[in-house]
Structures are given as C-alpha cells and as structure tokens.
Amino acid sequence: xxxxxxxxxxxxxxxxxxxxxxxxxxxxxxxxxxxxxxxxxxxxxxxxxxxxxxxxxxxxxxxxxxxxxxxxxxxxxxxxxxxxxxxxxxxxxxxxxxxxxxxxxxxxxxxxxxxxxxxxxxxxxxxxxxxxxxxxxxxxxxxxxxxxxxxxxxxxxxxxxxxxxxxxxxxxxxxxxxxxxxxxxxxxxxxxxxxxxxxxxxxxxxxxxxxxxxxxxxxxxxxxxxxxxxxxxxxxxxxxxxxxxx
Length: 246
Ligand code: FPP
What we know:
By secondary structure, this protein is an alpha/beta fold. The protein is built from nine helices and six strands; from the N terminus they run αβααβαβαβααββαα. The protein has helices at residues 3-6, 23-29, 34-55, 74-97, 113-125, 142-158, 169-173, 221-232, 242-245, and strands at residues 15-19, 59-66, 100-105, 132-140, 186-189, 208-211. A six-stranded parallel β-sheet has the order 3-4-2-1-5-6, with helices on both faces. α2 (23-29) crosses α3, α3 (34-55) packs parallel to α4 and α4 (74-97) runs parallel beside α5. The longest helix is centred in the middle third of the chain and has 24 residues, at 74-97. The protein is globular, with a radius of gyration of 19 Å. The chain starts with a helix and ends with a helix. The structure holds farnesyl diphosphate. The site of farnesyl diphosphate has 18 residues, from α2, α3, β2 and α4. Farnesyl diphosphate is lined by residues 20-25, 38, 41-42, 45, 62, 64, 69, 83-84, 87, 136, 216.
C-alpha cells in the first residue's frame, strides 16, 4: 500500500515545522558548489508546500535562515538572499492559485531591503488566503524572540498595562512572532543532526520530534508521509497517563 493511503487524514499534525538541513553536504557529495545545494533545497520547499496543501495540513513553518547564518561567507549569504527573492517572485502565482498565505517570523528588517520589500509584498498579497499558512523563519532566533517578548511585557508591566500576577502562557504567546500560529505538533529535522538549533523553543514544548538522515534536497513527499505516519503511531500524552488519553 502506498504511504499516502496508510495516512489517517483525520489525524494529521495541524502544524508541521521543519529544520531544512543538509543542502551543503548534498552539494559536496555531488561535487557541486554549495549554492546548487540551496537551489535543490528550494525545489524541495516547493514540493513539500504543495503536498501539505493537498493533504490539508493547515500550518507549515520552515527554518530558512537563522540569525547565526549571517556568519556564513558573504557570497553564500548573498546568493541565498538572491534565491529567496527569485523564489518569491516565481511562486507568488502558485501561492495565490493554491490559496496559501505566506507569513514571516524573525527580524525581517535586518534582511537586505530588496528581500524584506519582496517578502512584505507577498505577505500583503496573500494575507486573505486560508488553505495553508506557510511561515518562513528568516533571520530568526528563538532566544532573541523570547528576549523581545520579555522586554515588551516588562514595559507593559512598568506602564501598569499588565500586572505580573496575570502573566500566563497566553500573555507570552500573544507577544511572540508566532502569536497567530498554533503550537507545533511535529518538528522534522533532515540530514541526521539531532538538535533544535535555536528554533521555536517555546512553541515545540509538546511537539513530536522526528529526525531523518535524508538531506533536505533529497527530501520528498514520500519522506514527509513517512514522518507523518511515524507521528500518527505515537501516543501524545501531554503529561497524562496512557489510560487517561485512551
Ligand atoms: C541548511 O543547509 C539550509 C539553509 C541554511 C538554507 C535553507 C534554504 C533553502 C532550502 C533554500 C531557499 C528557501 C526558500 C524558502 C525558497 P546547510 O547549508 O546548513 O547544509 P550543510 O549543513 O550540509 O552545510
């Protein structure tokens, strides 16, 4: 039976987040420049976004560029930014046709003006779409997001807009970049690395983690179905006992 047929479509993860890793190693293995790995990675992005829309996953969040990635050689960063602009220009039509909303998280204003302008344009044009919310994490750091959140809430406390005893999970949630997104259900990382790398630390509190050796440019819809099947065979207890959740 095909993997798609084995999926329980009424128990899909509502929010999938992916750490897309291994573009460089994929290129190296093939004797290509790293940048061609990123181009291969962009093709995978397209396939995975399309399939998530088809099977009705509602939220997909992709770690496209971390704040730490600014430390890469300037040429690689420049080419990644160019790839981002050209992908956005090329895919706007597909996003509209498939009713996909693009949103961003991260310090978008730290990106080159051309990139942030293109992003803002696509975000604005797709803001009323509702089939799938595609979130790109760009110049993103989870710790930075938490610091920003703490500063904003502290300021509100100082100005008597919130009292400290009323600070709860929903107050924190409402100050994060992800304020309009639900918690992550399934976090996937490709390329064999088993770490979180400063991605959505608060939001993955109850997520199921799935690591695969497959390098991101080789990751395809069958790999995604495998990850979802694996997720569906786990028991999510949220701190309760097995008997309680049955
Ligand atoms: C990790 O591989 C990948 C990145 C840092 C960039 C991700 C970018 C893309 C998939 C391309 C464009 C994205 C969009 C949204 C169109 P790596 O370079 O860290 O690989 P390595 O660990 O093997 O060196």
